[in-house]
Amino acid sequence: MRYDTAYRDVITQNMARFVATPMESGGLKRAAVGLIVTDDGEGGAALVLTRRATKLNSHSGQWALPGGRLEDGESPAQAALREAREEINLELSGDTILGVLDDYPTRSGYLITPVVAWAPAGATMSPNPAEVARIHLMALTVFNRPGSPEFVSIPESDRPVVRYPVTDQYIHAPTAAVLYQFMEVAVHGRPTRVSHLEQPVWAWR
Q1: CB atoms near residue 130 (< 10 Å)
Q2: Do 59 and 172 contact (CB within 8 A), yes or no?
Q3: Full DSSP string of 9-43
Q4: Which residues contact 5 (CB under 8 A, 6 or more apart)?
Q5: CA triplet 95, 97, 100: central angle to 5 degrees?
Q6: pLDDT per position as a tens digit, 96-144
Q7: CATH fold of 5-140, please?
Q8: DSSP state of 119
Q9: What does the domain layout of the chain look like in residue ranges?
Q10: Which is nearest to 116 in space by CA: 2, 16, 192, 4?
Q11: Which of 6-10, 33-37, 61-65, 191-195 has the lowest mean pLDDT?
């Protein structure tokens, strides 16, 4: 999983073959997140993840992808690019977008459209402290380890909960569900759906 033009071509081709499933909002608030592929600093491909600022009113301190609510008249792609600029000071043009994944409904009242983008070599970023505590460039190999992701059961739902073990912590759904579909579709070329995957109970608020 090298960060180079050949690997960008692989992801581009996999995304082009995938037909995303949109959903009606049904009262959910529309949002977008960016699955931004970048250099891990050692020549490998990585995704940009953040830890949310601890002073935020909702989901503070959690692992997240850059993203947020759509503004009036925005497309998911436009929102993802704007949020990257606002949250991590990363400027991306429209031609960096490689495609979108399935809409994913969250228990907390959002319908997320994941937008896949490729950050050009040399792109710089820095956290907006009002929203982001820290930026993590997570090598794609982290999400490709044996036994990862994990699917666990909870008594509150008959749907499996998805999570990724990272060091001594977990990345939970909805972020984990979006990451799983990215790895399946964009990286491995497998048309996998994830809307059935559950989130932990504490994320339902």
Answers
A1: 10
A2: no
A3: HHHHHHHHH--------TTPEEEEEEEEEEE-SSS
A4: none
A5: 150
A6: 999 999 999 999 999 999 999 999 988 999 999 988 999 999 999 999 9
A7: Nucleoside Triphosphate Pyrophosphohydrolase (3.90.79)
A8: P
A9: 5-140
A10: 16
A11: 61-65
